[in-house]
Amino acid sequence: MKATANTIELTFERTISASPGEVFDGWLNPKTPGNPWNVAEKFILDPKVDGLFYWTLKTTSHYGRFTKVERPGRLQHTWVSPNTLGEESMVTVTFKKQGEDTLMTLVHSGIPDTDAGRGHEKGWNYFLNTFPEQFGRGSREVR
Amino acid sequence: MNTLNSATTDRQGYAPINGLNLYYEIEGAGDPLVYIPPAFRFAGVKTFPALAQSRAVITVDLQRHGRTAHIQDRPLSNEQHASVSTGPNVFRGQEREEGEEEMTTTLAKDITVERTIPAPPSEVFDAWLDPKVPGTLWHEHDKLIFNPKVDGLWYLLSLAHRSEGTPHYGRFTEINRPRLIRHSWMSRHTLGEESMVTMTFEIKGVGTLLTLRHSGLPNEVIANAHEQGWNSILDKFRSTCVSGSHRRK
């Protein structure tokens, strides 16, 4: 965990047994079990640059705007909710080829350094532990 | 802990607390519980039947609210309001005891702003959803993403007042031309909470009564700031409609 001023940055890494393209597509496809869209109570998703999203989980509404959609290497969007106090935080996901696998790295920056803000660590870990299980050859956490 | 019952105290009246003549009402009997209201003329209005079965629930009108007078030169503040929790001591005429309880809540706030506009509802409705019309919310921005249909999302960035800007996000939940537009609204100024904006357009004479209701704002300070913002936007929108420039675009 990295902290600047009053915000924190969280980084998560997973090695997933599939190509970057497959992992990228799986992460954005609401039909893929384990990604955030799949478990949403309600979502609206428009994954293109300046496309917006809406995502509700446990009655908490989240909004965001895609700023980079570069298949298969990079995805970036804002992330705003009561847990960020309405401040725009930024989620950057990169997908790097690593042999036959993909190193998926999710960096969530600009999160207010509050209890609710720090709670994002648990949230992303939940998704990043279930999502890789959807890919055939299994997965493991990067140490 | 001493209990309050109808024999030991008046059920309503004025209590001298911190220089205030605080109006109060008591419901039920038992250990005292002071309810500190968010504002308003509260004493005796909102009752707590379940609590009053076992407690003496004391409700009050805060300074400058309802039946409690203002004290000049004493600004209203949460600290000031909270000080009424010393009330039971005054009611009982003894020192505050350990374990004495108080409770408070914060209520989401709603605001309503109205304008009468000399144009028919369909014209006013269409003008409001056209970002090219000066005075509409959608015109006053530095970046706009806008999809005015049910479940369409919007994003509006204002660079005024803050170098990194203030992004606002929302979702249209109802669009019923020419009568009603409803969408959610969130930003750092709502603390990220989803509030709701409902606009209605009603025929009034040869014009339109435009009513904007912004509900679910997290507190009074935030509600006041939004009320000011909407007043300024709707003044500008009305001027545009009065001048007829919304038809020229």
Explain what you see.
The complex is a heterodimer of chains A (143) and B (249). The mean pLDDT of chain A is 92. Chain A has helices at 20-28, 36-39, 115-118, 120-130, and strands at 2-4, 7-16, 42-45, 52-57, 60-70, 74-79, 89-98, 101-112, 139-141. Chain A is globular, with a radius of gyration of 14 Å. By secondary structure, chain A is α+β, with helices and mostly antiparallel strands. In chain A, strands 1, 2, 3, 4, 5, 6, 7, 8 and 9 form a nine-stranded antiparallel sheet that branches. Chain A has one domain: 2-Layer Sandwich (Alpha-D-Glucose-1,6-Bisphosphate, Chain A, domain 4). Chain A contains four helices and nine strands. Chain B folds into two domains: 12-104, Rossmann fold, CATH 3.40.50.12270; 109-248, Alpha-D-Glucose-1,6-Bisphosphate, Chain A, domain 4, CATH 3.30.530. In chain B, 20% of the residues lie in helices and 35% in strands. Chain B contains six helices and twelve strands. In chain B, the strands form two sheets. In chain B, strands 6-12-11-10-9-8-7 form a seven-stranded antiparallel sheet. A five-stranded mixed sheet of chain B has the order 1-2-4-3-5. The A-B interface holds A 44, 46, 50, 52-54, 61, 63-65, 78, 80-88 and B 145, 147, 151, 153-155, 167, 169-171, 184, 186-194.
In short:
The complex is a heterodimer of chains A (143) and B (249). Chain A has helices spanning 20-28, 36-39, 115-118, 120-130, and strands at 2-4, 7-16, 42-45, 52-57, 60-70, 74-79, 89-98, 101-112, 139-141.
Question: What keywords describe this structure?
Answer:
heterodimer, A: 143 residues, alpha+beta, Alpha-D-Glucose-1,6-Bisphosphate, Chain A, domain 4, nine-stranded antiparallel β-sheet, B: 249 residues, Rossmann fold, 2 domains, seven-stranded antiparallel β-sheet, five-stranded mixed β-sheet, 6 helices, 12 strands, elongated
